[in-house]
Amino acid sequence: MVRIGAFLVGLFFSGWLLVSFIMGAVAYVSEPPAPTAEKEFHEHPKQVAFSFNGPLGHYDKAQLQRGFQVFSEVCAACHSLKFVSFRDLADLGYNEAEVKAIAKNWKIKTPDIDPKTGEMAGRVPVPSDKFPKPFANNVAAAAANNNAIPPDLSLMTKARHDGSNYVYSLLTGYQAQPAELLQKFPDVKTPAGLHYNPYFANLNLAMAPPLTAEGQVTYGEGQPKPTVDQMAQDVAAFLTWTAEPKMENRKSAGIAVLFFLLVATALAYMSYRNVWAETKH
């Protein structure tokens, strides 16, 4: 009797859960969630014809160097590259002397205290060092950036959907809040201190437009004009490299493997025909 009672109780709860699930599913289908400003006005990234797109794509080292220049002169004031070493810049075409010269323009803070000033001491980086963080800690980062902590950019293009295009779109997507949005959602006006950008997930972000004018960064002779669009493309390409420095090797290996598999398949098929040529099926 005890077993029968336990079975009936279990059957009752199983049936109750099934009925609850069906009722919830019906309610969800019959009453879809209310539309939100983020869902209606969030836009997918614009598509850019980067040199590394496609299975045969490759990095344009001149563009990567321009992108690194944009990062160094604009983005590095707030963002870090904690997974990238100075010596990695050799992949961009810089020689050893140039890498050392670049490293000297940065400073790594140490826990030692300068006895003369009472401030944290620092040292000049060597090529094996990672790029130093612009702030000592998250509290300092938030205090300098409208209570928002700037993310590390080392893997940003891998952390976001369609990352390269996302970075480009975000940098060029700052605009006034559309009148249509305010008409449909009058309570979602961009708060003071934030900036409207339809390529950001919740439409408003603390980061002010980092690229604001042509010539903000001066490129070398023979390079494209440093328009906002061009600088955005260049730094997006550079951040793609920081996230996937071995992309070209991966693509080359993939093509070699595909070629090997095609040849192996052809040889296997010919061997099959040769071995079973005399056999009637």
TrEMBL record:
<feature type="binding site" description="covalent">
    <location>
        <position position="75"/>
    </location>
    <ligand>
        <name>heme c</name>
    </ligand>
</feature>
<feature type="binding site" description="covalent">
    <location>
        <position position="207"/>
    </location>
    <ligand>
        <name>heme c</name>
    </ligand>
</feature>
<dbReference type="InterPro" id="IPR002326">
    <property type="entry name" value="Cyt_c1"/>
</dbReference>
<feature type="domain" description="Cytochrome c">
    <location>
        <begin position="62"/>
        <end position="171"/>
    </location>
</feature>
<dbReference type="GO" id="GO:0046872">
    <property type="term" value="F:metal ion binding"/>
</dbReference>
<keyword id="KW-0479">Metal-binding</keyword>
<dbReference type="InterPro" id="IPR036909">
    <property type="entry name" value="Cyt_c-like_dom_sf"/>
</dbReference>
<feature type="transmembrane region" description="Helical">
    <location>
        <begin position="253"/>
        <end position="272"/>
    </location>
</feature>
<protein>
    <recommendedName>
        <fullName>Cytochrome c1</fullName>
    </recommendedName>
</protein>
<dbReference type="GO" id="GO:0020037">
    <property type="term" value="F:heme binding"/>
</dbReference>
<keyword id="KW-0408">Iron</keyword>
<dbReference type="GO" id="GO:0016020">
    <property type="term" value="C:membrane"/>
</dbReference>
<feature type="binding site" description="covalent">
    <location>
        <position position="79"/>
    </location>
    <ligand>
        <name>heme c</name>
    </ligand>
</feature>
<keyword id="KW-0812">Transmembrane</keyword>
<keyword id="KW-1133">Transmembrane helix</keyword>
<dbReference type="GO" id="GO:0009055">
    <property type="term" value="F:electron transfer activity"/>
</dbReference>
<feature type="binding site" description="covalent">
    <location>
        <position position="78"/>
    </location>
    <ligand>
        <name>heme c</name>
    </ligand>
</feature>
<feature type="transmembrane region" description="Helical">
    <location>
        <begin position="6"/>
        <end position="29"/>
    </location>
</feature>
<dbReference type="Pfam" id="PF02167">
    <property type="entry name" value="Cytochrom_C1"/>
</dbReference>
<keyword id="KW-0472">Membrane</keyword>
<keyword id="KW-0349">Heme</keyword>
<dbReference type="InterPro" id="IPR009056">
    <property type="entry name" value="Cyt_c-like_dom"/>
</dbReference>
